[in-house]
Amino acid sequence: MVYLSAPVPQVSPSQFPSPQLLSNPLASPTKPATGRREKKSLDYVVRTFLAGGIAGCAAKTVVAPMDRVKILFQSSNPHFVKYTGTFWGVLFAGREIYQSTGVRGLFQGHMATLLRIFPYAAIKFVAYEQFKNILVHSKAADTPGKNFVAGSLAGLSSVFCTYPLELIRVRMAYEVTHSGKGPGVYDTFRGILREGSTGDAPRIRLGNLYRGFALTVLGVIPYAGVSFWTHSFVQDWIRAHFPHQILPTDDPHSKPRLKAIPELISGGIAGAVAQTVSYPIEVTRRRVQVRGAISPENNKIKMKEVVKQIYRNKGITGFFVGLSIGYLKVAPLGAVSFYTYERMKWVLDV
């Protein structure tokens, strides 16, 4: 009998799973020390795009019912004005929506939200990483201030690309029906394009899709910038004072990631601080966006007049209508968004 022998391949010990991972399959693995992935490469951009888009959709789905009520409050919808100004108003408003239109009513306009938020969040995080790559050349240079600049520029980039979808979403959320079926994306889109037109053959006005855009630009700088700045600042503070909350890593080129709870906390604080800074601009922007839905003649009212009208009706507090629900919304929104993004980057190895 003839025995054929074959060479036995040599296996490096590093190819075996770590004892920690074998003893605890749910333990978070450390990222291999493969060096930095080239941030300008198409591969990096695509992976970051996916991570950001998924993070945005996950966060918006969690807070969709509160987002619907907040838009109704901010735009002074006549059916829900009676609930504004009280902390429990959001619960009463949500109950009325649920009783009249069911769960569908709480998520009215959410499909348009997802259609907008995936590219919005994806572009925002991709742009943030690219601007940060230009500004930050070492781990020591990764400061909250540079995160503010990168975040502001990223916010401007994403809002420019996706603003028409945001306007459609707000219009859909503003409409209140008792049938449980709100206006569709196409009908809302067509209605916006034809606002201000007269005659049997209404003209299409593409500029209508960017109504309120100037206010959005003014608002996105403090919101996006402060959000990334606060997130970076809180993370650095946690790393400095709670080193046991840091996950192990072999990557010497970037700051170590945090465990789940501190990551969620830093994202929640970032969202709350950013919301406070930018809220007055957001309220004014909502009024500008929905004025055409109330009456086409309202589109002739200038932005300055909208601000005066808000102040005359409710004073300074008018610019903070719905802020309580804003806090209830942006804390989980920021927490889920940043947490999901960081974990998706880990899964996609970026």
Structure summarized in a few sentences:
The protein has eleven helices and no strands.
Give keywords.
single chain; about 350 residues; mainly alpha; 11 helices; about 65% helix; transmembrane; MCP_transmembrane; mitochondrion inner membrane
User: Beta fraction of the residues?
Assistant: under 5%
Q: Name the quaternary structure.
A: single chain
- Percent range for helical residues? 55-70%
Look at the structure and give the mean pLDDT.
Answer: 80
Computed Rg: 24 Å
Would you identify the CATH architecture of the domain at 211-320? Alpha/alpha barrel
Number of helices: 11
Q: Given this structure, which CATH class of the domain at 211-320 is correct? A: Mainly Alpha
N- to C-terminal distance: 54 Å
CATH superfamily of the domain at 211-320: Mitochondrial carrier domain
Class inferred from helices and paired strands: mainly alpha
CATH topology of the domain at 211-320: Mitochondrial carrier fold
Q: Ranges with pLDDT <50 over ≥5 residues?
A: 1-6, 11-35
How many strands, what sense, and barrel or not for the largest sheet? none
The outline comes out as: globular
Could you state the order of secondary-structure elements as H and E? Answer: HHHHHHHHHHH
Give the tally of β-strands.
0
Pfam families: Mito_carr
Organism: Basidiobolus meristosporus CBS 931.73
Biased composition (Low complexity): 1-26
Solcar repeats: 43-134, 142-237, 258-347
